[in-house]
Design a protein that fits this description.
By secondary structure, the chain is an alpha+beta fold. It has 15 helices and 24 strands. It is globular. The structure holds adenosine-5'-diphosphate (ADP) and 5-O-phosphono-D-xylulose. 5-O-phosphono-D-xylulose (5SP) binds next to helix 9 and strand 19. The site of adenosine-5'-diphosphate has 16 residues, from helix 10. Belongs to the FGGY kinase family.
Length: 474
């Protein structure tokens, strides 16, 4: 019997690093590993590298693997000096410090120009706004920046064993979230970088094609081929084989609504970001900052585990008997309210209970996704089949409450590591393309059982009334 060729996919996302090793031809899972990332919205990139090493060791190493790709949390800002050393902790996509910088950039050039030239109207998540923040708040650090890259670019580069900033490589899906890349032309817009940062004499990662081998591993006793990698949502879309009309919901650290489409999207309202996918198409996307961590915070407040939180939430009726949580615990990105705080509305003697609060937390994060679905429809995209993935989909409460609050049937693929799976599928594609153009490997796309909606439209109506009533952070 011949030994199957193996590929690895890595998901370096906000809260942890996950590694899957799969058979290149069939996609069958062979081994896996994971390791946590430090908490917080500013993280030393070296901590991602350490977590990756632990996760790879747990997955049995990469010595027998033929190709590797990295999927990673989108946006953020990794700044490197001439020697390739991080200048300061990376600012993550969910760090809202640059909220004012985002507002300034939109004011200076106009939402329409940003949307037309980059697909996206900047919010605090976008790299360009973080560079503006750095220039204004840390001019000494800004002056030392020789290269800026994204989390997945940094890890691909570390896997190559390089320290030369000229070797940095990215892909279109992640480049499209920087605020200085035009996905519709597949090219950087350095004039926007200069406008945001005051300089453009810095190295940006070369943007590789979707099936390009960008180098070889120089670590983990392996000479595996490296794929270009992808932003995490593009990577999950690749794993699930999203096609026209398919919508993906992700309930991880971020709440995400996205779809794969053939033509670029430019939403002048800034709600839908016109990102690229990892196959040469586009990935219009809406993201919230307050998703699984709102559930985590509620759980820790109530002193319960994930199972108890779900039991509590499902023990009270839809609408939590009038209790409505506005979940802006970390500010918010959609709607664009970087300084907002959360609020609890409709409190009565009857509903001021752990069970009602648990349900209100699930309903709040799902209502956030509802805002995203409305926005995706508003730019003319079809919402046909809907699939939900991400850490919080492991909760039976999420699986029951989401279809009901959104009023749509939702397919629930078996909970899994779809970002890492998409990266592994890309690695297999890169390997197959080594001998010439090849189709995306025909791995079976997980669909899963469909949760049928028992619509509870009053939940979104109550949320729409409550959401505008929040206080800004002092
Ligand atoms: N059974 C569960 N119920 C609720 N939340 C869960 C459950 N299992 C995992 N989570 C949450 O999922 C989140 C991690 O999701 P994940 O998609 O892995 O995050 P990310 O990729 O953004 O790092 C954590 O906040 C975790 O608490
Ligand atoms: O900013 C976005 C999308 O634009 C987020 O989706 C990040 O990519 C983080 O993803 P997770 O860690 O939640 O998977």
């Amino acid at each position: 019997m011949t030994t199957p060729t193996l590929v690895a996919g890595i998901d370096s996302s906000t809260q942890s690093c996950k590694v899957v090793i799969r058979e290149a031809e069939s996609g069958a899972l062979v081994r896996s590993g994971s390791a946590p990332h430090p908490a917080g919205t500013q993280v030393d990139p070296e901590a991602w590298w350490r977590a990756l090493q632990v996760a790879v060791e747990q997955a049995g190493g990469l010595a027998d693997v033929a190709a590797v790709s990295v999927g990673g949390q989108q946006h953020g800002m990794v700044t490197l000096d001439e020697q390739g050393r991080p200048i300061r902790p990376a600012m993550l996509w969910n760090d809202n410090s640059s909220g004012q910088a985002a507002a300034d950039l939109v004011e200076e050039l106009g939402a329409e120009r940003w949307a037309r030239e980059t697909g996206t109207v900047p919010v605090a998540s976008i790299t360009a706004t973080k560079l503006r923040w750095l220039a204004e708040h840390e001019p000494e650090n800004a002056a030392r920046v020789a290269a800026v890259c994204l989390p997945h670019d940094y890890l691909t580069w570390r896997l190559r064993g390089s320290t030369a900033i000229g070797d940095l490589v990215t892909d279109t899906s992640d480049a499209s979230g920087t605020g200085y890349f035009d996905a519709s032309r597949g090219a950087y817009r350095r004039e926007l970088l200069r406008h945001a940062f005051g300089r453009e004499d810095i190295v940006l990662p070369r943007v590789a094609a979707p099936t390009e081998a960008v180098g070889e591993l120089a670590t983990f006793s392996s000479r595996a081929v490296l794929g270009p990698g992808a932003g995490d949502n593009a990577s999950a879309a690749l794993a699930l084989g999203l096609g026209p009309g398919d919508v993906l919901l992700s309930v991880g650290t971020s709440g995400v609504v996205c779809a794969v489409v053939a033509d670029p999207v430019a939403d002048l309202t800034g709600t839908v970001a016109g990102f690229a996918d990892a196959t040469g198409h586009y990935l219009p996307l809406v993201a919230t900052v307050n998703c699984a961590q709102v559930l985590d915070a509620t759980r820790s407040l109530l002193g319960v585990d994930v199972h108890q939180l779900a039991d509590l939430a499902l023990s009270v009726p839809a609408g939590s008997d009038g209790l409505t949580l506005v979940p802006y615990l970390q500010g918010e990105r959609t709607p664009n309210l970087p300084n907002a705080t959360g609020a609890l509305h409709g409190i009565t003697l009857e509903n001021y209970t752990p069970a009602h609060l648990a349900r209100a937390a699930f309903e709040a994060v799902v209502c956030g996704l509802g805002v995203g679905i409305d926005a995706v429809r508003a730019v003319g995209l079809e919402v046909g089949s809907v699939r939900m993935v991400g850490g919080a989909v492991r909760s039976p409460a999420m699986r029951e409450i989401a279809p009901s609050v959104l009023g749509i049937d939702i397919a629930l693929p078996e909970p899994g590591e779809y970002v890492a799976d998409g990266a592994a599928r890309q690695a297999a594609w890169v390997l197959a393309s080594g001998a010439g153009p090849a189709e995306l490997p025909n791995w079976s796309a997980p669909v899963g059982a469909t949760a049928t909606a028992t619509p509870a439209p009053t939940v979104r109506a109550a949320y729409a009334r409550a959401a505008p009533h929040y206080l800004d952070r002092q």
